Amino acid sequence: MKLMLALDVEDKETAIRILDNVIDYIDAIKVGYPLVLPYGIKILKEIKRYNKEIICDFKLADIPATNEKIAKISLKYADGIIAHGFVGEDSLKAVIEIAKNMGKKTAVVVEMSHPGAVRYMQPIAEDLALLAKNLKADYIVAPSTRPKRLKKLKEISSLPVMTPGIITQGGKIEEIKDILDEKDYIIVGRAIYQANNPKESAKQIKDLIG
Ligand code: O7M
Question: What positions constitute the catalytic site (predicted)?
Fold first, then answer.
């Protein structure tokens, strides 16, 4: 399993300080609205110097033409992009095609980790996992907070997963460890960047999944 840091901090100094501390223990960096809205997408140029895979998390959920534009801009600076599956085949296809043309990766959100996802997302998640497979996406995003669902969605999609929800949202590494392998990522944010000692926390998590 690989460790992806969710760098959901809102100021650049904090982002750099966290990265300086944890860089030896992480495999990828996920950047989303909290950091990009204040500084713009070019903040990713500064993060690139850490030589880790960078995934843009804007959870694209728009019509194909707009999804395509956002993906194209983001992937100039990042190695991968995250898109919602529920908006439909055409919207998702637009992102996957752009990413493939640029030699980059797409991860498709099929079921989210928070309690609210159970009512509206869970009933369609298995369909979305199949859609991700059929469109030849690179990853699905599925919840660590529901290990049985994670297992099922991974099986249906036959794709590697990026899975959030560990520690702060209640997901437990020991409950998902057997489901995942070396191609899968666990996504961890607050348990690292809000820890008293982010370096120690990242190291402990890396040791647990390694
Ligand atoms: O470890 P946390 O809870 O502080 O952060 C988890 C990160 O994963 C945070 O960036 C969330 O926006 C993201 N995330 C979820 O928590 N749940 C989901 O279902 C999906 C994501 C995500 O990354 O989607 C791509």
Answer: 57 (for ompdecase activity), 59 (for ompdecase activity), 62 (for ompdecase activity)
Given ligand 1 and candidates 84, 113, 140, which is best to mutate, with the most ligand atoms within 8 Å of its CB? 113
What pLDDT score was predicted for residue 210? 81
Distance between CA atoms of 56 and 29, rounded to whole angstroms?
Answer: 9
Residue 24 per-residue DSSP state: G
Q: Return the domain boundaries, the chain.
A: 2-209
Q: Which CATH number fits domain 2-209: 3.40.50.1000, 1.20.1250.20, 3.40.50.300, 3.20.20.70?
A: 3.20.20.70
* Residue ID of nearest Cα to ligand 1 atom 20: 112
pLDDT tens digits for 113-127?
999 999 999 999 999
Structure ipTM: 0.99
